[in-house]
Here is the input.
Amino acid sequence: MSQTDPLTRAVEAALFAAEAPMTAEALSAHLGGADVRLALRDLAAHYVGRGVELVERGQRWHFQTAPDLAHLLRRTREEVRRLSRAATEVLAIVAYHEPVSRAEIESIRGVQTSSGTLDVLMEAGWVRVAGRREVPGRPVIYATTPEFLTHFGLASRKDLPGLDELRAAGLLDPVEDAVSAALDLGGDVPRLDRDAADEREYPPPALESEDESA
Amino acid sequence: MSQTDPLTRAVEAALFAAEAPMTAEALSAHLGGADVRLALRDLAAHYVGRGVELVERGQRWHFQTAPDLAHLLRRTREEVRRLSRAATEVLAIVAYHEPVSRAEIESIRGVQTSSGTLDVLMEAGWVRVAGRREVPGRPVIYATTPEFLTHFGLASRKDLPGLDELRAAGLLDPVEDAVSAALDLGGDVPRLDRDAADEREYPPPALESEDESA
Amino acid sequence: MTEVASPLLPLETEDWNGPAAARTDDSALYLELDGWEGPLDLLLDLARRQKVDLRAISILDLVDQYLNYIDQAEALRLELAADYLVMAAWLTYLKSALLLPRDEQEDPSPEELALRLQLRLQRLAAMREAAARLFARDRLGRDTFVRGAPEGLRVDRKNMWQCDWFALVQAYAQVKARTVPVVHMVRDRLVMTLDSALARVSAMLGVALDWMELRDFLPAQAEPRLRRSALASSFVAALELARLGKAELRQDAAFGPLHVRGRKP
Here is the structure.
């Protein structure tokens, strides 16, 4: 590389290490009174077209990343995350009952719903605020978005299966019925010998998870 | 100015903007998986002789001001941490012998090491716990960190001053090894005559800068 | 560079890294002792004053200088740390051993002990010099500087939420199923009471001669829930009969089949 003038090197190093932009006067004072103006021009010219540039703003000089590379300083990393059970339930309730307020969601779910859950659904772009209900307190009401339909492959909300279809698919069977059905099927009598362990066990009902934070 | 390769510009901008040294891998990940090694070499060559230089320390890269400009920049900076003489010795022992246990450090120094000494070095980020030695008692062993290399301007541990000479002279081997080696050779035992202080001049130790002596 | 003087030897300037004090009088001793990090450090200091390669020092001179130093400290009634005195005792022993005729020397030989001391001094000296060279390097934050105001690299995380149609529909169905009002009804169940089990087991034991498995006492054609009740009641009945001395119970292994036999009075 070409020989660089000592004063230019000093100006380069001083501006690089400086914690704030510096005026030519401050630089000069720092470098023993030398006239730094020429060095500043040389430096600015040297950095043209590089990843970093020397710029003057309000008579103060500083290095900065070339503007066209600013996007390099901020990168976005996408992380695939599965919707929590609680958030899925809330999304389903919004989809089936929209527009719906948070109080209504809670009354349908039978459990409290943290605001974080709705935030997640809005971040995902599937739920939006659809105004306020004109009742005392004017609660915010929520509805699904076109992105929701796209993501779940639905032409419209009418494509969601109705209660009758859910019942026919066995998805609405209460837990009690399912247990007795299993008992009726299981003809094995528990014995007092070691084979008793093979008695049919009904899968325990799924645990109610209230993992709203996800 | 010459046209600069886009990847080189990107690497230059990213390293200028980075708040800590970066490995080639981290840089590559940040820049969308590009192979940055050639760009790093080009950049390092470009900055040779300038007021700022690109250096590699423990496989991590960063820009820093040229060392010969220290006198221009130092006065505006607050003093770096002062270490006790004990701490500087312990740091040298860890660096030249790593990984090393506290007992080994003490056997070299001939005194107990107060627990604060290693704590100071770990707090400075220069020494870390590197596991345990698989011998009775499983003593904790210590080693230096990448920050140590960065601070002392070492590309790697191989650059430790005088490392090769110390190794060749056996001065990094335990005393026991040296004793048995000497006895096997049957020779080099210390002189007992008082007037033997003649021949070789012992090379004077390197200067210790004023602000380091505790 | 640090001006260094010995408290015992004539004033001199040296380029080693010992405790700093430009004093020659004995009153400096106390401060000096504070400056050394243990007896090995003091020995190294003394050895350096011989101005030769550490490999060529005279151990006997070194021993004399150290003992002389300790004597003076004691004459001034300075409190010496125990390890300085331990080293003094060891050096006294080493000196006397070294002065013995060779054929009277013990094992390990004093030469080996002296070598050991010399090797330790060399190693300490090497590390001290290494430390000095290390700290004399261009150090980041003192001699070289990183960028004063870096823009910083930021990585923003963006979540890509995943959920499929079935999970959605299933979740709704479960909410519905969970919140449907539930009516609990207890069905009338066929049971075998303890009394009837007692009568039944007693009667069967009366006709059986040998061990019988408890299972064989159960009604053969009963529906499952009755069989379960009968098993429990028959087991309790068998225990009760055994308590009354009317039956014997046998089980060959834990969880194995339970056998019952009538006991003739």
